[in-house]
């Protein structure tokens, strides 16, 4: 009987879907809808104005400030939070380069961004591990689509070389692939119970919904 129980436990462990796989599978429909929403759809179709793009960066900057402040206050696996991933300073470089006026005072935040920042701030105080669900959306999304978006943005706004696209710069292709692989491995190494993993995936889904709301507001 004991041998059968041990075998059963090993089978459960072997067949359990990894957190990174669950996140990819269960957020895929939301991911598609977000890409087709509001300002992001306009950007991908080459129809976004430069002021509209700066408004997007301004709001993302506020989100990253809250996210990275929360991550910096808690012990986090280095694969999930390291200096190379931080996007606050690159966003500031791009906004300084592209925004026609002082962006901190002339770039109002959308209601969706204010709500998102409040959510991240709350998680940082009460459930910091769930901040990593938002890090999953942002950092892996930036690493996956960054090079394509960098070329698109540079061409659409006639930028000189890499000027104005620091947000998408994570190093050479080998470094980008290493960061992606490390991030997934870090996610899969999180010591979560089944209930905690469910909450993590649910939080990632909510992050996609919050992004969709923001992108729709920016398009109005």
Structure description:
It is a single chain. By secondary structure, this protein is mainly alpha-helical. The protein has helices at residues 2-15, 19-35, 38-44, 50-72, 88-98, 103-106, 111-126, 131-156, 173-188, 194-218. Mean pLDDT is 90; it is low at 1-15. It has a single domain (18-218), classed as Up-down Bundle (Heme Oxygenase, Chain A).
The CATH topology label is: Heme Oxygenase, Chain A
Summarize the biggest pleated sheet. Answer: none
Q: Round the mean pLDDT to the nearest integer and report it.
A: 90
Structural class: mainly alpha
Number of β-strand runs: 0
Shape: globular
- Residue share in β-strands: under 5%
- End-to-end CA span: 64 Å
User: Do you know the CATH architecture?
Assistant: Up-down Bundle
Give the name of the CATH superfamily. Answer: Heme oxygenase-like
Q: With helices defined by DSSP (H or I, 4 residues minimum), what is the helix count? A: 10
**CATH first level: which class?**
Mainly Alpha
Which residues form runs of ≥5 with pLDDT under 50? 1-15
Task: Give the topology string: H per helix, E per strand.
Answer: HHHHHHHHHH
Keywords: Heme, Iron, Metal-binding
InterPro entries: Haem_Oase (IPR002051), Haem_Oase-like (IPR016053), Haem_Oase-like_multi-hlx (IPR016084)
Protein name: Heme oxygenase (Biliverdin-producing)
Organism: Pelomonas parva
